[in-house]
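Hi F.,

I've been meaning to write this up properly since the lab meeting, where we talked about keeping a consistent format for the predictions we share between groups. The idea is simple: the sequence comes first, exactly as it goes in, then the structure tokens exactly as they come out, then a line or two of notes. No screenshots and no reformatting. I'm using this chain as the first example so we have something concrete to point to.
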Amino acid sequence: MLKGFRRKYKPLEVLSEEELEAIHRGALDVLETTGVRVEHDRALKLFADHGCNVDFEEKRVRIPPWLAEESLRKCPSHFKMKARDPKYDLMVGGDTFYFLHGMGMRYVDLDTWETRPATVKEHRDAMIIADSLENLHMAGGYEFYMDRVGIPPCMVMLENFASGVRYSAKAEHMGYEKDCEKFAIKAAKELGITLMGELGTAAPLTFYNGVVEAMFSFAEAGFPCRPVIYVIMGAEGPVTLSGSLVLSNAQMIASVVLVQLMKPGVGMVIEHGISPMDMQRGTNQIGGAVEHALTTVGFNQLLHRYQIPSMTCAGYTSTSKKIDYQCGYEKAMGTLISALSGANLHIFQGGSGFELIYHHVLSILDDDIAGWVGRFLEGVEVNHETLAIDLIKEVGPIPGNYLRTEHTRKWWKKEQFMPKVADKEVYPVWIKSGKKDALALAKERMEEILATHKPEPLTPAQEQTVENMLKEAREYYRKEDLISDEEWTAYMKALEETD
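Output, unedited:
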């Protein structure tokens, strides 16, 4: 099992107990009086059968406070994720912090910074890189490169998921669209892995039919559910931070109630993000906004109170369209705040540009940031040996030094974080070695990884499971007229690409 990073100290806080209670009570009030819209008949009946006031015509559910509180208590504080290789299993919850892939729709050219659909090879290479990165703990393939050359939209998630399990043995997660999650869940059970379900709720206070159907599928399979609570302040939620925290908390609690009614005790992690709208440009400032960081800390405080694991995204992307200074500081600062505030999972490596772009080189650069953040979380180890009092006495004042001591040889690699691709050379050496910056060094490391790293392959039986999943899904979508003859021809041509 991967240990990830363990936070050694109390989480960062921005809200007092009185303020947390006000947000909690406000959310319960909203749920009881305003309620949520649920566009799924089976779910409406489930709510009604458990004491909720349900208007079936308006599809409005009003949840009593007692049921909300009871459901929060039923939600487990920890759950296990089984990976294809047991050494990559995860235990989500408590003080443990894991990193997973970032998001980006399209491949970006590092010379022109223009984007385009990704090829089969580019998705495969990204998964191989992810499998090799020591600070990327959950390498789900489905979530990035959702724009693929020749792949019909209805098959993209499944093709990405297949690439994920083929080229990485790390833990997986999956989204939903036109029943694709049902094919993936069936395959995951046969593969013996846990498949976390990402389930996108809609602000304000709405659950569309597709997400609720997917909730049933994941919960009934016993797989952990990950409701996504995203609110844009001033558009989908109040412009005030505390008002959007109330709205988001109400939507989160409604998600917990629904999932726990479906299957009491099933694991859950709450993915959350509250970001401001740029009122001058009309865009969502999901990357680098300080308000996103502040609300991340506040929402994590609520989830600690409820003892429900959290997944954060402050710093998971940047508004920059390049891998540049802005990209680095927006991603790093949000990520550090997310980690310090006690998140359990954090979306990070590889994505930028408002979720538009993804690149393997950026995932390598981000992995250095992840290692830096993880080292900070682990804090200072204080014991007899690390205090080094006897050694200090022995070395004494100048001309004494610590370079040649056994203590230094033993401890320096344990105590110091060493980035893999940062430019650490002194100026004269840097000049002589070609003036390489971090981006150039990351490109070199990418080539080295792709030439040398060999992910654990699927067994023949596992490969057959993946092929059966894809074959069954392709036939289903062809029958449903979701893949035209023209799309099918382009699809088969794209799958022929191997180099």
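Notes:
The longest strand covers residues 225-233.
The CA atoms of residues 375 and 416 lie 8 Å apart.

If this format works for you, I'll send the rest the same way.

G.
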